[in-house]
Amino acid sequence: MPPTITAFERSPDGGKGLARDTRVRWALEEVGQPYEVRLVSFKAMKEPAHLALNPFGQIPTYEEGDLALFETGAIVFHIAQTRAGLLPKDAHARARAIAWMFAAVNSVEPPILELQNALLLERDKPWAAERMPAVKDRIRDRLRQLSVALGDAEWLDGAFSAGDLMMASVLLRLRASGLLDEFPTLAAYVARAEARPAYSRAFAAQWDVNKPAGG
Length: 215
Ligand code: GTB
Fold this sequence. Notes:
The chain has 215 residues and is of the alpha+beta class.
């Protein structure tokens, strides 16, 4: 039986690939693993059957045999560990690729989420405009550091890895803000990641679910 993931029945981004099932689809596509998708509504996500898979009532989840996982970092790590193609064989290179996966979700994604919250949830607060420059500067600090680490390399540490997959997925969410374009080497890095055939297949699969009727 192929693994089954969950995704939004209707993603709030209308299929721009920003919901987190895209990174799991992408990892599965990179390793050539067919998968099934169970679409869930916001209501169903908070019901016991889904909470048994993800205690936070979120997507995506991953089920394979008697294994059930949540958290995209853990899911992509599991896929990368159990199939060839997303982690180097050399033990040290593998450990460094895993470090980049953690860096993506633990060091780079948090300030980006702060921006999303500021834009979506705090826009009408009296202090929103005053806070925004600090929120953006915290992202710029991380992007500056990341662009130094990347330098003029194609990927973060040798060949494309699960570390790049997670990092590019996190950075993609910044595009609409214009902040990514302030760092041309990172914008080019994300564009290279998006040009991978596996990413295109993952994007197309989620678009198929979310595209406007008749689109
Ligand atoms: N840390 C978890 C992980 O990495 O798996 C975070 C999972 C998560 O945030 N899931 C979101 C969710 O289920 C969907 S991706 N939210 C519903 C809820 O909490 O009730 C976040 C997301 C949602 C919408 C957009 N968008 O519209 O652009 C982008 C990203």
